[in-house]
Amino acid sequence: MDKFRTICKGFFQIKNLEHVSRKALTLILIIAIASATVIYYHTDKVTDVSLHRYNMEEKIIKHRKSEHKNSEEKTSKTLEFFAESTPIHTATLSKASPRAERATADLKRVKDVCEKYKGTEYDEAPANVGHWHSSVDDEHKLIYYYIPKTGCTLWKAIFGILTNQSNETDAANITPYDIHFRMKYTNLYGLTPEERNRKLSSYFVFVVVRHPFERLVSGYMNKLGEPGEPYFQNTYGAPIIEKYRFGATPEEIKSGKPTFSEFINYLTDPEMVRTYNIDSHWAQYYKLSHPCFVRFDYIVRFEHMKEDTQHILELKNLTNLVEFTYKEPKTSNEKLKEYMQQLTINQIYKLYEAYKFDFELFGYDFDIRSYI
């Protein structure tokens, strides 16, 4: 009993324990042991930050999967309604075909996401920036919003053939130089608002998209990495190295070849983007194609480039005019992971935030674990 009194006296700092009963002392000791146990396990749990964060991400992922499943169920119920109001489905697509469902779901998603972000920084009318990234074929009533590094070389070649700027019938036989420098493409920029809106409402309008991170890797490799291009290395690469590489030598700056990590630091630095602008090869999709202000009839997936391109040619009865030999892209999933693993988790999260709207608009998932 004297030992109990001594423990309680030290733990609770009680001075007159002689008047405390045995039951009271026992209860006090039980409470003390229970409190110590709770504190121990609580401390042990919260100190393991990595496990705690992983568990939270697991819960978030499960919740998003549940939301995605519910969204898919809702989408399937609305397919028939949207099929009637979307031009693409009034032609040759069967309402039951996978391509029809995917095309309808893509268009509905864009509409829903634009509504979700209405009134925010993303709700920016294109009147001030124009429609530079559009190609118009008046004869066949086609409008293509082109985004660099999403297969635009193929579709520009097709437009070159359709507008009688080449004697070739296979788009793959036209050289990149002819496609990007010799051929001329009519866009919507110089038109009056009335004429532009007339064409947008009556022509077949489409855009090609791919996974935003995969596109950035492709743009980096092609313009700043290997092989790279002098214009991009001088205009963007040199300033990026100068700012983000500690102790960079004049030779390193002059090379204009930043690391991928330095390139991402530039893309996620608002001040640098404002100072050196942002090139179309890595500008966000919504800034180039204005999906919240342009009525698209079809969203071509880079992952389904061959079949979607063939489908549009068939839909517009152009297969007798144009052929194309499709070449698989050089930027694979393995290449994407190789470059993303050069980044810190914080860099990846910041990059996602910079391109989050594109991810949501076109239904690309973001899972941090696939890059680390």
TrEMBL record:
Protein name: Carbohydrate sulfotransferase
Location of the protein in the cell: Golgi apparatus membrane
Transmembrane segments: 24-43
KW Transmembrane (keyword) present: yes
Family statement drawn from the similarity comment of this UniProt entry: Belongs to the sulfotransferase 2 family.
Main location: Golgi
GO molecular function: sulfotransferase activity
Organism: Artemia franciscana
First-tier enzyme category under EC: transferase
EC code(s) of this entry: 2.8.2.-
GO cellular component, one term: Golgi membrane
Membrane topology recorded in Swiss-Prot or TrEMBL: Single-pass type II membrane protein
Keyword set, alphabetical order: Carbohydrate metabolism, Glycoprotein, Golgi apparatus, Membrane, Signal-anchor, Transferase, Transmembrane, Transmembrane helix
SUPFAM superfamilies: P-loop containing nucleoside triphosphate hydrolases
Gene Ontology biological-process entries: carbohydrate biosynthetic process
